[in-house]
């Protein structure tokens, strides 16, 4: 408003620069059409030193370009301003530059240097906006500069700049398609980006530049799936659409078995022949299955990646953005197994509440879906009922959906509804309704007669459109089985007495003529009546009377010969030349004379040829070969740039292409671990050893997986999955799985339990969020491995609380043979009560002895102290030794860093305590507990609601899990599960209460003077209880 | 993606155009004007049009057409949704989305469009981010601006785009911290002549107005969340918490926003707050008919029904209406044939009634199409579905916010079928009656 008021003052008078104005439209007259006379002062203003003046001038200029194709005298002034410091001026200059750069290329080049400077700015936002403007200047000469800038920005520190780089890619591509190869490199790089900010934009660039390079997606597929929920909504749409296409090329049809059954025996040798050397494991199975019988085919197992996509997109159905909902809906429609597609119906029905344009698009898509999957929308039938306030195009589409949904059970309700519609004021809509009734009648045999009767009655409607439509529909219906409906034809014959609408009369006459054989007695009588009133009829009726007469003459010449002659004679002298012509023509054709020639022989064939029954089918049939939700689908024509939705592959391509490298050392660590376990009985619980090291190692790598704070529970499961991922990779060579089996046998005492637990675990794993992760074992390929994994998982849950968690301090590889693990022994550290005891276990895996193990160069946060363990003088090859050291963490989870030294090497290591280890148990009675709790209210109390894990509903497990997570002792006889402890350094009380309610709901309360400890503890215990 | 945008007023003038890629001539709009003419009503213009070289996707909002030009395949909903977002943003900034307002603020609108799309792909559509870059005009600011020559373009660079919560700007400060939630429910219903519900459902929306300092983390819980059948959320709501605990946990955007939309399933019986007794009849002889409508309360849960309004689309043949209303006023628009009866508050002791005669065009056949009766109403302090907010908790900040929840029930698309009687019925209506019976027989 300030802007407009500003240039309102300026205007008036006539133009001094005699440029012709373009598009002088009256509507915008007030503001734009008057000329700006003081252009010279604009120039001065821009040259001035004051930012405010420059701004004023720029505002005027921008206001002008909005409406008028204008001369370029200000362009060079823009150059000066682009050096200006004020952000406001800059922005307006940019708007101007981008708009006119194409027309004023030379001048635009002058400003490039400014942007190049901007690209180096320390502020990320300035870097981004410089790149944005630079790439928007459509001048071919600067392509190399843009390319360079994009490449640089693609590796920028700031994700925002990288996002801008992704945006710039399509701009450059449209400017110069020859840069494609280089741009693909950038896209590949940006696709690997792990931030949500970049993901949407880069996929958009991918779609515009190289949608055919599906191979670039493989490595990023799982990441994209997992990031999806946090990407901004516009990006989500693009990613989902792209992933739909991707999934169509990579996975098998989940409805394969059904569709094959439908097709009959389709699959034989060629079905599987293509990928002989792709997957050995799979292929073997398939070879067996190849034997002809279909029944023997191995059941379809969904690729876990396929499942991942479906699961991660489902929550987006709840998005407020209709485009996102539609994208998910089409993804489910094209990719999900039949049984699961239903979930999208509710969301789509919700969109019908939105703006009418949204409804229009959604209904088009629903119409297509209802043809294939009618059952899905049947429960929502009433949502498609039509309101008189709907725009006509919406009404017609809703009608289409209702028609598609009609079946034997609901047809009566639908017909009743249609009846209301027939009385609507909107005649186009009434016509559409009549057609819909006709279609219902064709599709559902039982109501055909009812519909027909109803339609016949509509013939007497005053509105011609309605009548014409009814006649057309009746005609179609009758053509299907005319012999059954002679009574309707009779009925219609009767109607000729009453109905005055010429169109209807004409239609009835046509029908009688066409089916005169079915009404042999009535037809001549109708003709008689018509002959009587011939002169008073409308022209179209007259034509049909002639038509009827001709047909009757051919079939029943005895009775009608004279009548026909009479009618033809009347017509001969009619005022209308059409009718005269027709009469002459017909007379020649049907009345045999010596001159009539060959044609009259064929008169009967000409007039009474069997007309094919018209097919009544939905205009939306077969539209689903277009990707739903796309422009092409809506228009039912291929739009430019439309990417075909590929057919399902007959055999799945190698799923391992999507595997992402797990950092090398993690992989071998788990392998080593297992081997170690085999050789020597470990003192720690088996399961802990499995997941412990990987967990600590992986959490760093995969922290980006955590969508928000609430998903803390996922990190644990995520790393477990990743452990299994590495396992599965190993097992490809087949040897590893055997080892694991042996390993299982070693634990004989637990074996029975395992077997019982196997199934529930498998199921619960499916339910809970484990699968929400990238790293999944391909279940059917490595069934054995995953079974083992399940065992490990259940072992972990039933592991006794006394088992202490082991952490890795030094890995065997990095330690050149020396591996060190530590655990928090939970014993009081005798030399200093304020220290946490850390028990270390040294294993010498090397061939040579290790000497003089000790600690050096301890780096600590202020206040922290370390009591070193006494030097281990000799650790022979293959031997193990333990030592205990004390660390005072000062009640913080800061890591203690130090060097572990041997006689030859020094290793930097660090110990970071989980918060639960920073306390020691204290004994409190219930009363004391309550009293203490009362003093630690308000800020010191943190309450969190949670749902307990299925396996953790009984008191025993809860207690076990809490005490495992934190070094606390239970308050005896407490009504709730109460735990107490004190922090080691400052002896602050830590009180934990777990109150359980029905159905696994529970409330966790932590009271602690130290709020930081409290918050962290809540997180840890939550994790322990919900997992 | 989106190539250009044209804003067109209802008389068919293009009053603003913006191109994100190379410039496309205005002549492309001619195809649209053609379709616009064909459609008669502006609502009936197909949202998607195909021209030889371009595709036109348009929306109709506030008597304006937002017409975008597309060159290649793009999901149409993507464009439609974006155009609505543009209209929403303009409304958010200037209070309404109309031609006058846009012309008055043309530079700001232009700047907004520039920020919202980059090369045709949406860049910043969150109102919080946009407001940081381009400040919405206020009276005070416009005064200050004219005096000092400052503009609405923010001096600071927006940081919202960089954070993990792109919908909230950082460094929000208020002296009064408050969070208000409006639970607004709309009843969509179709009743037949006898008052039986053909179809009814409740659509609800929670509008929030949150002005809280810092980065608050709110949790809104309901007494009876199971009522909610289908929901859609603002992106700030954590979906997982909803799935597991049925509470809304979110870091709110600053200012006004729509927190969630919900739908109460039709399995639950929907209370219909009013009933309508109506009869409209036409005499076969003579150019007149009669109309008699009475409205009374049905299930109002003890609250008063306010803002009651009845709209009837009369058959085209009805020339004028000579009626008397016991309460409120009525108007009959001769051009559109719409009868509006504005009643106001519904008094259960004295039911409002509208009675009188209708004049039809002499010589024309009697109307045979059914008028429809639409009802508008409001009930304060009531969510008709029975939904109740139980509590709002705040984490992450230490102050005590002022909290408030308001409930409101409105009639959405509330429609009643009317069957007219035409005395001395002609054959047609007789036959229709016959058919109706026939259908019913078959259906049972």
Automatic annotation (TrEMBL), chain A:
Position of the signal peptide: none
Q: Kindly give the Pfam families that the UniProt entry links to this protein.
A: Adaptin_N (PF01602), AP3B1_C (PF14796), AP3B1_C_2 (PF24080)
- InterPro entries for the chain: AP3_beta (IPR026740), AP3B1/2_C (IPR056314), AP3B_C (IPR029390), AP_beta (IPR026739), ARM-like (IPR011989), ARM-type_fold (IPR016024), Clathrin/coatomer_adapt-like_N (IPR002553), Clathrin_app_Ig-like_sf (IPR013041)
Primary location: membrane
> A single GO CC term, please?
clathrin-coated vesicle membrane
List the biased-composition ranges (Acidic residues): 274-284, 729-747
Low complexity biased stretches: 707-721
Keywords tagged on the record: Cytoplasmic vesicle, Golgi apparatus, Membrane, Phosphoprotein, Protein transport, Transmembrane, Transmembrane helix, Transport
Domain named AP-3 complex subunit beta C-terminal is located at 752-894
Renumbered to this chain, the Basic and acidic residues biased-composition regions fall at 669-683
The portions of this protein that span the membrane are: 61-80
**Which residues lie within the region annotated Disordered?**
1-29, 258-296, 666-759
**Family according to the record:** Belongs to the adaptor complexes large subunit family.
Q: What does this protein do?
A: Subunit of non-clathrin- and clathrin-associated adaptor protein complex 3 (AP-3) that plays a role in protein sorting in the late-Golgi/trans-Golgi network (TGN) and/or endosomes. The AP complexes mediate both the recruitment of clathrin to membranes and the recognition of sorting signals within the cytosolic tails of transmembrane cargo molecules. AP-3 appears to be involved in the sorting of a subset of transmembrane proteins targeted to lysosomes and lysosome-related organelles.
- Supply the name of the protein: AP-3 complex subunit beta
Which species is the source of this protein?
Sparus aurata
Upper classification of the source organism reads:
Eukaryota, Metazoa, Chordata, Craniata, Vertebrata
TrEMBL record, chain B:
The residues covered by the MHD domain are: 176-417
One Gene Ontology cellular component annotation?
clathrin adaptor complex
The scientific name of the source species is Sparus aurata (Gilthead sea bream)
**Subcellular localization(s) per the UniProt record:** Golgi apparatus; Cytoplasmic vesicle membrane
Q: What is this protein called?
A: AP-3 complex subunit mu-1
**What is the protein's membrane topology class?**
Peripheral membrane protein
Q: What's in the keyword line of the UniProt record?
A: Cytoplasmic vesicle, Golgi apparatus, Membrane, Protein transport, Transmembrane, Transmembrane helix, Transport
Q: Does the keyword Membrane apply?
A: yes
Q: Which residues cross the membrane?
A: 416-436
Q: What does this protein do, in the record's words?
A: Part of the AP-3 complex, an adaptor-related complex which is not clathrin-associated. The complex is associated with the Golgi region as well as more peripheral structures. It facilitates the budding of vesicles from the Golgi membrane and may be directly involved in trafficking to lysosomes.
Leader sequence segment: none
Q: What is the lineage of its organism?
A: Eukaryota, Metazoa, Chordata, Craniata, Vertebrata
Q: Which family does it belong to?
A: Belongs to the adaptor complexes medium subunit family.
Q: Name one GO biological process term.
A: vesicle-mediated transport
What is the superkingdom listed in this entry's lineage?
Eukaryota
Q: Do you know which CDD domains this protein is assigned to?
A: AP3_Mu_N
């Amino acid at each position: 408003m300030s802007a407009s008021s500003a240039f309102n003052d300026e205007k008036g008078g006539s133009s001094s620069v005699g440029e012709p104005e373009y598009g002088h439209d009256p509507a915008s007259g007030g503001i734009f059409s008057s000329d700006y006379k003081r252009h010279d002062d604009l120039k001065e203003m821009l040259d001035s030193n004051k930012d405010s003046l420059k701004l004023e001038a720029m505002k005027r200029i921008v206001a002008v370009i909005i409406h008028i194709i204008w001369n370029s005298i200000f362009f060079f002034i823009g150059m000066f301003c682009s050096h200006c410091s004020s952000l406001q001026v800059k922005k307006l200059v940019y708007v101007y530059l981008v708009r006119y750069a194409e027309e004023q290329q030379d001048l635009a080049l002058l400003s490039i240097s400014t942007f190049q400077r901007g690209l180096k700015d320390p502020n990320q936002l300035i870097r981004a906006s410089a790149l944005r403007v630079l790439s928007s200047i459509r001048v071919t000469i600067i392509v190399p500069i843009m390319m360079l800038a994009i490449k640089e920005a693609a590796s920028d520190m700031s994700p925002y700049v990288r996002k801008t780089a992704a945006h710039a890619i399509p701009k450059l591509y449209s400017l110069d398609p020859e840069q494609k190869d280089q741009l693909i490199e950038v896209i590949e790089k940006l696709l690997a980006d792990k931030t949500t900010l970049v993901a949407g934009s880069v996929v958009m660039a991918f779609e515009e530049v190289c949608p055919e390079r599906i191979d670039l997606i493989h490595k990023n597929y799982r990441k994209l799936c997992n990031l999806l929920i946090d990407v901004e909504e516009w990006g989500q749409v693009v990613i989902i659409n792209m992933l739909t296409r991707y999934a169509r090329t990579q996975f098998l049809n989940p409805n394969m078995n059904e569709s094959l059954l439908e097709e009959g025996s389709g699959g034989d040798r060629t079905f599987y022949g293509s990928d002989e050397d792709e997957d050995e494991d799979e292929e073997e199975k398939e070879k067996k299955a190849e034997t002809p019988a279909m029944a023997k085919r191995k059941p379809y197992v969904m690729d876990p990646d396929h499942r991942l996509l479906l699961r991660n997109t489902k929550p987006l159905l709840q998005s407020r953005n209709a485009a996102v909902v539609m994208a998910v809906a089409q993804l489910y429609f094209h990719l999900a197994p039949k049984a699961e597609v239903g979930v999208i119906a509710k969301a789509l029905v919700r969109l019908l509440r939105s703006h009418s344009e949204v409804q229009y698009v959604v209904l088009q898509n629903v119409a297509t879906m209802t043809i294939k999957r009618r059952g899905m929308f049947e429960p929502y039938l009433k949502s498609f009922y039509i309101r008189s306030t709907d725009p006509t195009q919406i009404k017609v589409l809703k009608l289409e959906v209702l028609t598609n949904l009609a079946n034997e059970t609901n047809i009566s309700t639908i017909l009743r509804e249609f009846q209301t519609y027939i009385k609507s004021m909107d005649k186009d809509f009434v016509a559409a309704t009549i057609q819909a009734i006709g279609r219902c009648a064709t599709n559902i045999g039982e109501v055909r007669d009812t519909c027909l009767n109803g339609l016949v009655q509509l013939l007497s409607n005053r509105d011609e459109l309605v009548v014409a439509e009814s006649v057309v529909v009746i005609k179609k219906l009758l053509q299907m089985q005319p012999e059954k409906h002679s009574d309707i034809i009779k009925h219609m014959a009767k109607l000729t007495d009453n109905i005055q609408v010429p169109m209807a009369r004409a239609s009835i006459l046509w029908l009688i003529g066409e089916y005169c054989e079915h009404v042999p007695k009535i037809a001549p009588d109708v003709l008689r009546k018509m002959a009587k009133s011939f002169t008073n009829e409308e022209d179209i009726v007259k034509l049909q009377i002639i038509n009827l007469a001709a047909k009757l003459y051919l079939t029943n010449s005895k009775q009608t010969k004279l009548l026909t002659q009479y009618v033809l004679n009347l017509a001969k002298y009619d005022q209308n030349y059409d009718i005269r012509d027709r009469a002459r023509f017909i007379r020649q054709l049907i009345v045999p004379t010596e001159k009539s020639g060959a044609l009259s022989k064929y008169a009967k064939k000409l007039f009474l040829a069997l007309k094919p029954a018209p097919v009544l089918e939905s205009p939306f049939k077969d539209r689903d070969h277009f990707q739903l939700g796309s422009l092409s689908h809506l228009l039912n024509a291929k739009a430019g740039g439309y990417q075909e939705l590929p057919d399902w592959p007959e055999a799945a391509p190698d799923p391992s292409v999507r595997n992402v490298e797990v950092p090398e050392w993690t992989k071998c660590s788990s392998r080593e671990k297992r081997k170690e376990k085999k050789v020597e009985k470990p003192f720690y619980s088996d399961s802990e050893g499995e997941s412990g090291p990987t967990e600590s190692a992986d959490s760093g790598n995969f922290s980006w997986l955590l969508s928000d704070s609430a998903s803390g529970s996922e990190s644990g499961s995520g790393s477990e999955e990743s452990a299994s991922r590495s396992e599965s990779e190993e097992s490809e060579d087949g040897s590893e799985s055997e080892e694991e089996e042996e390993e299982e046998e070693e634990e004989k005492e637990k074996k029975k339990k395992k077997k019982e637990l196997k199934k529930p675990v498998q199921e619960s794993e499916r339910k809970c969020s484990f699968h929400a992760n990238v790293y999944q074992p391909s279940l059917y390929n490595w069934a054995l491995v995953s079974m083992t994994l399940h065992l490990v998982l259940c072992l972990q849950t039933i592991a006794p609380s006394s088992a202490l968690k082991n952490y890795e301090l030094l890995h065997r590889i990095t330690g050149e043979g020396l591996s060190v693990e530590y655990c928090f022994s939970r014993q009081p550290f005798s030399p200093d009560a304020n220290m946490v005891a850390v028990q270390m276990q040294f294993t010498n895996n090397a061939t040579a002895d290790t000497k003089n193990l000790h600690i050096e160069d301890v780096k600590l946060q202020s206040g922290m102290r370390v009591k070193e363990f006494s030097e281990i003088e000799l650790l022979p090859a293959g031997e193990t030794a333990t030592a205990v050291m004390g660390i005072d963490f000062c009640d913080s989870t800061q890591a203690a860093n130090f060097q572990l030294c041997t006689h030859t090497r020094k290793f930097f290591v660090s110990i970071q305590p989980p918060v639960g280890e920073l306390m020691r148990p204290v004994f409190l009675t219930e009363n004391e507990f309550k009293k203490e709790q009362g003093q630690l209210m308000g800020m010191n109390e943190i309450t969190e609601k949670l749902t307990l894990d299925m396996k953790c509903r009984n008191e025993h497990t809860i207690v076990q899990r809490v005490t495992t997570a934190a070094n606390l002792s239970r308050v005896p006889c407490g009504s709730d599960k109460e735990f107490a402890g004190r922090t080691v350094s400052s002896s602050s009380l830590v009180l934990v209460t777990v109150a359980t309610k029905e159905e696994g709901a529970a409330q966790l309360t932590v009271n602690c003077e130290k709020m930081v400890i409290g918050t962290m503890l809540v997180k840890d215990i939550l994790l322990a209880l919900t997992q | 993606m989106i190539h250009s945008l044209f804003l067109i007023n209802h008389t068919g003038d293009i009053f603003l155009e913006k191109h994100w890629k190379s410039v496309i001539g205005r002549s492309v709009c001619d195809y649209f004007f053609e379709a616009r003419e064909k459609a008669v009503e502006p609502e009936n213009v197909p949202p998607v049009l195909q021209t030889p070289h371009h595709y036109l996707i348009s929306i109709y909002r506030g008597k304006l057409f937002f017409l975008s030009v597309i060159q290649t395949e793009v999901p149409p909903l993507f464009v439609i949704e974006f155009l609505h977002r543009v209209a929403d943003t303009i409304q958010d900034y200037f209070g309404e989305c109309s031609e006058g307002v846009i012309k008055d603020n043309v530079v700001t609108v232009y700047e907004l469009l520039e920020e919202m799309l980059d090369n045709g792909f949406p860049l910043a559509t969150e109102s919080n981010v946009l407001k940081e870059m381009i400040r919405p005009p206020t009276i005070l600011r416009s005064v200050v601006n004219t005096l000092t020559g400052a503009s609405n373009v923010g001096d600071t660079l927006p940081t919202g785009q960089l954070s993990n919560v792109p919908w909230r700007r950082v460094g929000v400060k208020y002296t009064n911290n408050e969070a208000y939630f409006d639970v607004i429910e709309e009843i969509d219903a179709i009743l037949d002549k006898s008052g039986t519900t053909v179809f009814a459902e409740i659509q609800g929306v929670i509008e929030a107005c949150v002005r809280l300092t810092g980065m608050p983390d709110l949790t809104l819980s309901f007494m009876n969340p199971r009522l909610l059948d289908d929901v859609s959320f603002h992106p700030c709501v954590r979906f997982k918490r909803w799935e597991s605990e049925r509470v809304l946990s979110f870091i709110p955007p600053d200012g006004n926003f729509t927190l969630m939309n919900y739908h109460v399933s039709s399995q639950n019986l929907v209370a219909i707050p009013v009933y309508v007794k109506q009869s409209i009849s036409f005499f076969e002889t003579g150019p007149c008919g009669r109309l008699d409508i009475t409205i009374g309360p049905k299930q109002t849960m003890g609250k008063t029904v306010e803002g009651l309004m009845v709209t009837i689309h009369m058959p085209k043949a009805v020339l004028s209406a000579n009626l008397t209303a016991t309460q409120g006023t009525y108007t009959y628009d001769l051009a559109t044939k719409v009868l509006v009866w504005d009643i106001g508050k519904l008094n259960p002791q004295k039911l409002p009634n509208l009675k009188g005669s209708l004049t039809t065009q002499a010589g024309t056949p009697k109307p045979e199409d059914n008028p429809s009766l639409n009802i508008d109403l409001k009930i304060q302090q009531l969510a008709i579905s029975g939904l109740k907010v139980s509590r709002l908790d705040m984490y992450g900040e230490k102050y005590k916010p002022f909290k408030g929840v308001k409930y409101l029930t409105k009639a959405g698309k509330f429609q009643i079928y009317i069957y007219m009687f035409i005395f001395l019925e002609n054959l047609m209506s007789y036959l229709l009656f016959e058919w109706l019976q026939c259908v019913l027989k078959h259906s049972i």
